[in-house]
Structure formats: structure tokens, C-alpha cells
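look at this fold:
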Amino acid sequence: MRKISIFAIMLILAGVISFSSQAFGQSGRKVLMIPREGYSNDLDLMIKMEVGVMTWHLKRAGFEVDIATTSGFPIIGPTQKIGKVMRLADINLDNYAGIIMPCMAVGAFPGPPVSQEAIVLVKKALADGKPVAAPFGSVIILAEAGLLKGKKYAFFRDPLKTDENWKLTDLRFVDAIYSGAGVVQEGKIITSGACPTIEMAWGGENKTVELTKTFIAAIGPK
């Protein structure tokens, strides 16, 4: 199994795996992936090692993956891109088993604006009993939507505490329960505090695979 995963990552790095919804072993079930627009630093890394790895594991589990943003424009890095992107306004959430939101490494607060369309879809997914997964930067979307109040969540560090390296607090996390940087599941909400950029910049262990597998398990059998 480890050999297969390593081989898959090699294919992603080589640009062999497509981000289209054509999947091996697909069952017809779909997952909606919502990246955050407006991020530029290390975009190649995040496309390959976060969006690509998430997509590979979802397809391997039998899911089709649709990627959607507010604009619906392709997401283009220096050498990598996500060419097929839908518009969030055109999404019918009834067609999807859950939502996964790549970190896209938003960096310091406040980062790129949070999509109101994304908030609406995430709220509906959870209201319908569908899982929502979010690593690091996209956890901010859950906080802005008010979905973390009274719930445990993961983040790179506690966003309500400051020190010499962390000068700002994010009041959107007030009344939420910070629970470390590992993968945390609270009902249908799955969060983690470490993405590929965090691993590269700070040495924190990348949780992309664990987060994606936890999300798949939360969807459950058809």
C-alpha cells in the first residue's frame, strides 16, 4: 500500500494525474472541492501536494471530484494549474456527498476574502448531515461561518494567543475549542492544522492524507 501511495505522488509531481472528474474506480458519487482564491505564494506546491494528493485519494476511494470557486476561473501557478473549475453559484449540493476545502496556505490573517458562496454551501452541507473537511487556512472559513462555536477544531497554533512570532488574534475563533494541530473530528466537521506549506516552512507534519482519509470515512458507504 505504501508503494502505491508513493507511486501516486510521483505521478502527481510528474503532472500525470489530471484534476478532471474522470476517475479510476469511480462509483458515481461526487465530492465538492472548494479552494480559496487569491493566494499566490507556493501555489505550485499546494496544487501538487495538497489538491493533487486529496484528489488522488478521493478518486482511489471511488469518488468523482468537482472543483469550484466563486469566479470559476482556472487556478494557475508558475508551472501547475487547475484548469477545470466550476462556479460555486452553479453548484447543486444535493449532487455531492461532502465538501473538502484545501488550505491553499492563506498566510497571515486576514488572508484572501472568504467566499460568501462557500459559507452558504458549507452551512447547507453540515445541515444536511454531510461532512466538511478543512486544513489550516480553510479552517478560517468555518470560523467566519460561525460553525466552530462550542466545537473542537485544529489549527497550526491557537489563533487567539499571541507571542513574538504571532502578533494578531482572530476573533472569529472566540468560543471555539482549540485542540492542537493534528486532525480533529467534531461530528461532521474535520479539521487539521498542517498543510504542505506549513510542513515546508515550519516543519509541522503534513496532515493532508490523514485529513482526506478521515473525510472519506465520515462520508461512509453509499
Q: What stands out?
A: The helical segments are 2-13, 43-60, 116-127, 139-144, 196-202, 208-219. Residues 1-27 have pLDDT under 50 and may be disordered. The chain has one domain: 2-219. The first helix runs from residue 2 to 13.
